[in-house]
Amino acid sequence: MNNSGYIDLHVHSNVSDGKFTVEQIMENAANIGVTTISFTEHYNMGSYYQARKLSNGNIEVIPGVEIGTSLEEFGLSKKHICHILAYYPSYSLCEILDHYEMTRQACVKKTLKKLQQNIILSYSDVVKYARDKQSIGRFDIAIALYKKGYAKSPVAAYGEFLELGTAGYISREKMGVCELIERIRKVNGVPVIAHPKSLKLSFDDTFNLLKKLKEVGLEGIEVYNPNNNDEQRYNFLMLSKYFDLLPTCGSDFHGLKDRPTLLATGINNNLCITDYSIIDELKDRHHKIYLENKQR
Questions:
Q1: CA 126, CA 158: separation in Å to the nearest integer?
Q2: How deeply is 282 buried, as exposed, middle or buried, from its count of CB atoms within 10 A (0-12, 13-18, 19+)?
Q3: Which residues pair with 85 in a beta bridge?
């Protein structure tokens, strides 16, 4: 397998909230020279085996998943969102994902109840337009709002009706970040902070947070993300070195018009990472976690 091409460890298909199918993304990846990819769908790993089959051994597919978590245990407000990427988890991770699936179902029902005070939208409408009718999420509500003419796009609908401070926002129960990191490690996963810019913290507060998360087992931070400007990338890289965290790379590709980020290359080619030592170290950290768990 050729490992000299682009690396993208943060990709979303229509299995979660992306626009394109796994097949379309894998075809695109092959065409632009991606040689290592990870589909990090929200709360599920439904893309992994399909992507592996489509790779034909030419693209390395790394198992991953993205999970949202709360920073309220650190006294921060709900606007401080922390998403954790888990790489190489065993399928025992399903216990964690089942927890989120239950809270998601409750969230959808509460959200619709709030929206129905001003909007005509039923649960059957959401199911009709849902990407996966067996697993309905908040983004499926956004799709239904768009299809029913309440917004110009699903992303716009999400921002107008479902974000914090909007008419349909419901605070969804999230696992604390420390507990989530510990549980990811217990199922042999490598926990990494996604798009650290979204933490909305100062440099000092980010330093203090990483110090605490490193103590509970955080292994990496997404330094190379197209939404990090040069100064942020530099700061996150320095922090990763200071705390011995793996600096990972990911486009957070969704393929949506509202998000101009391209697979692997980012925004105006500000990603384009080909350093395979990132993958080597990711595998090394996974192996160490696996051995730690085996010795327990």
A1: 14
A2: buried
A3: 66, 192
Closest CA to 125 of 148, 150, 107: 148
199-238: pLDDT as tens digits:
989 999 999 999 999 999 999 999 999 999 999 999 999 9
Give the bridge partners for 193, in sequence order: 84, 221
249 bridge partner residues: 224
Domains annotated on the chain, with CATH: 6-97+173-295 (3.20.20.140), 98-162 (1.10.150.650)
**What is the residue-wise DSSP string for 44-73?**
--TTHHHHHHHHTTSSEE--EEEEEEB-GG
DSSP code, position 272: -
Q: What is the pTM of this model?
A: 0.84
Q: How far, rounded to the nearest angstrom, does the alpha carbon of residue 288 sit from its chain's CA centroid? A: 23
| Digit-coded pLDDT (tens) for 85-126 | 999 999 888 877 877 777 777 888 889 999 998 899 999 999
Query: Strand 34-39 relative to strand 6-11: parallel, antiparallel, unpaired?
Result: parallel
Q: Distances in Å between the alpha carbon of 139 and those of 73, 157, 224?
A: 26, 9, 26
Q: First CA to last CA across the chain, in angstroms?
A: 35
- Quick check: 74 and 212 in contact, CB under 8 A? yes
Rounded distance, CA 175 to CA 75, Å? 15
CB atoms within 10 A of CB 1: 9
Distances (CA, A) of 79 to 171, 173, 198, 199, 228: 11, 14, 9, 8, 19
- The two three-digit tokens of residue 248, written as one number: 């990972």
